[in-house]
Amino acid sequence: SAVISQKPSRDICQRGTSLTIQCQVDSQVTMMFWYRQQPGQSLTLIATANQGSEATYESGFVIDKFPISRPNLTFSTLTVSNMSPEDSSIYLCSVAGIGFSYGYTFGSGTRLTVV
Amino acid sequence: QKEVEQDPGPLSVPEGAIVSLNCTYSNSAFQYFMWYRQYSRKGPELLMYTYSSGNKEDGRFTAQVDKSSKYISLFIRDSQPSDSATYLCAMSVNQGGKLIFGQGTELSVKP
């Protein structure tokens, strides 16, 4: 399966600032996704990162708040903009490879605390 | 109603017990079913991946899918303290499509 490197692993940020999270995969993957996991909760899909085009956002998530880039088949970034304490969560990158024979792999996540 | 329902637990069992974890779902279009294990402060780790109905076994883990009942299960035999984690079911309609997760069941295996 693919190996995902997600950075930073954790951060504490001031409200009103922005944080960009990076997801690097060791092999080309077809699909890349960004999830949010709020404290004690399950995973909620934010958006699908599309290579070379705008991301596809789920209901309740907008590009101005969570801009996403995916310049190639191995890299994506998620920015959490104009942060508030409600954005404190774990943000996870996930990939599904060519053929999908191994399901979906997740990064170790970015634990974000907004103060 | 959530698309995927999973009892959050917590579930506590003695070492060596057989553990049964379950999810129900409402969308009959789901075809791909997964179970993930998530340790504290880690990302989810894929345990089992199945397509459509049937059983799949991998070591101490068995996944069952009953599409007619919209019900999936994960069985853990001879449970170990190292199995203590949160178990999440997930499913998708298409290969590579978005995953819908259950809430996760917190499992504790006591020595």
Low-confidence stretches of chain A: none
Largest sheet of chain B: 6 strands, mixed
**C-alpha geometry of chain A:** globular
Order of helices and strands of chain A: EEEEEEEEEEE
What fraction of residues of chain A sit in β-strands?
Answer: over 45%
Based on Cα principal axes, name the global outline of chain B.
Answer: globular
Return Rg of chain B in Å: 13 Å
**Main beta sheet of chain A: strand number and arrangement?**
7 strands, mixed
Main structural class of chain B: mainly beta
Give the helix level of chain B as a range of percent: under 10%
Order of helices and strands of chain B: EEEEEEEEEEE
| Total beta strand runs of chain B | 11
Number of continuous helical runs of chain A: 0
Mean pLDDT of chain B: 93
**Fraction of helical residues of chain A:** under 10%
Compute the average pLDDT of chain A. 91
Short description:
The complex is a heterodimer of chains A (115) and B (111). Chain A is 0% helix and 53% strand.
Give a structural overview.
The complex is a heterodimer of chains A (115) and B (111). In chain A, 37% of the residues are buried. Chain A has no helices and eleven strands. The mean pLDDT of chain A is 91. Chain A is an all-beta fold. Chain B is an all-beta fold and 111 residues long. Chain B has no helices and eleven strands. The model of chain B has no long low-confidence stretch (mean pLDDT 93). The chains are: A mainly beta (115), B mainly beta (111). The interface between A and B is medium-sized, with 26 and 22 residues.
